[in-house]
Write a structure and sequence with these properties.
The chain has 330 residues and is α/β, with parallel strands linked by helices. It contains nine helices and twelve strands. It has a single domain, classed as TIM Barrel (Alpha-Beta Barrel), CATH 3.20.20.70.
Length: 330
């Protein structure tokens, strides 16, 4: 097993220790940039079951993956979410278990998820104003989400981040409210630049705003770029002496964004997707049925990784397979 550790490298010598695993395409929100008409089933296939998930994570952990992010769709619509976290936490080599959620079920789930072993939590909060939140997510659940977030802090989930997609004319005037939020709370707010997908072309033209506006604003207000390691991934984080929390920005249109790519993705149907905006997917599901298939699964993953493209081509509007991010998890 030792020989396999750290063997997840692509042809450009990027090393992978971080796997994003979608647990479902289903979502109960209608975010205007993602699923404006709500989730509609496009196929009859079921998402990976617990057994398939665990076989998958076992194989990847032996290849050097030490952080798993559970995402979706909305991963907490799965009734077995706590049990999945609990089982992943027991797998050798997995040091961090992360969850990205819209926060709808967080109030009930924060404590059991923490007890199950969840270490990192990202909660999407696209506005801090009720009316705007409804406009962006299609739901009036801002209060509910914030109560869930407070609960997560209270129960002691170690790393908590808020994800906010920056949207021109929708939430770009709320910057100072978000910054106030991290004055006394030990959490990060991460602004994500809106990405074009196969189904949001017109919306993108209307609401895309470069995160450069936040970068300059923060620097002007005395925030400093935090130093980072090569394995930290593409987010840039800022700190300020008067603030307990941090502000991060994720700028997928920046020239060197893909150079720091540190993640692999698996769809909820067990397909390996090498680039968020790539064309290719490889189904691993037939190799997830039995723990004895682990070696063949690992060899298949290692071979496929060599096909990972050097970068996406979003700048030319090429969005690949991704019609919306609920299909794969962002
Ligand atoms: N449902 C969960 C949630 O919203 O947190 C997890 C899945 S969602 C696809 C993961 C993240 O991707 C969320 O923070 C969401 O805001 C972000 N996202 C979705 N579509 C996006 C887009 N077109 N551009 C940038 N971020 C996007
Ligand atoms: Fe659902 Fe998340 Fe997409 Fe919003 S961003 S519609 S919460 S999957």
């Amino acid at each position: 097993m030792r020989a396999l550790q750290d063997s997840l490298r692509d042809s450009y010598n990027r090393q992978f220790k971080y796997l994003r695993l979608s647990l479902t395409e289903v979502c109960n929100f209608r975010c205007s940039y993602c699923l404006p008409d709500g989730y509609k089933s496009s196929c009859s296939e079921m998402p990976l079951n617990e057994n398939e998930v665990i076989n998958l994570v076992h194989a990847f952990s032996e290849l050097g993956i030490n952080k798993i992010r559970l995402t979706g769709g909305e991963p907490t619509v799965r009734q077995d979410i706590v049990s999945i976290v609990q089982k992943i936490a027991k797998i050798d080599g997995i040091k961090k278990i992360a969850l990205t959620t819209n926060g709808f079920r967080l109030e009930q789930l924060a404590a059991p998820l923490f007890e199950a072993g969840l270490t990192n939590l990202n909660v999407s909060v696209d506005s801090l104003q009720e009316e705007n939140f409804l406009k962006i997510t299609g739901k009036s659940y801002l209060k509910k989400v914030l109560v869930g977030l407070e609960k997560a802090v209270l129960v002691g989930i170690p790393t908590i981040k808020i994800n906010t997609v920056l949207l021109k004319d929708l939430n770009d005037t709320e910057l100072s409210n978000y910054i106030n939020l991290v004055r006394k709370a030990p959490i990060s707010v991460r602004f994500i630049e809106l990405m074009q997908t196969g189904s949001n072309g017109d919306y993108f033209k209307k609401h895309h705003l470069s995160t450069k506006v936040i970068d300059s604003y923060l620097r002007d207000c005395g925030w400093y770029e935090a130093s980072k390691q090569i394995t930290d991934g593409p987010a840039v984080e800022f700190t300020h002496k008067d603030y307990l929390g941090r502000i991060g920005i994720i700028s997928p249109y920046e020239k060197d964004f893909c150079k720091l790519c540190n993640r692999l993705r698996i769809s909820s149907f067990g397909k390996l997707q090498l680039c968020l905006f790539g064309q290719g997917q490889l189904s691993l599901r037939n190799l997830l049925q039995d723990a004895d298939q682990k070696e063949e699964l690992q060899q298949t993953i290692l071979k496929s990784l060599l096909l990972k493209p050097v970068e996406h081509d979003l700048k030319s509007g090429f969005t690949g397979l991704t019609k919306n991010l609920s299909m794969i998890g962002g």
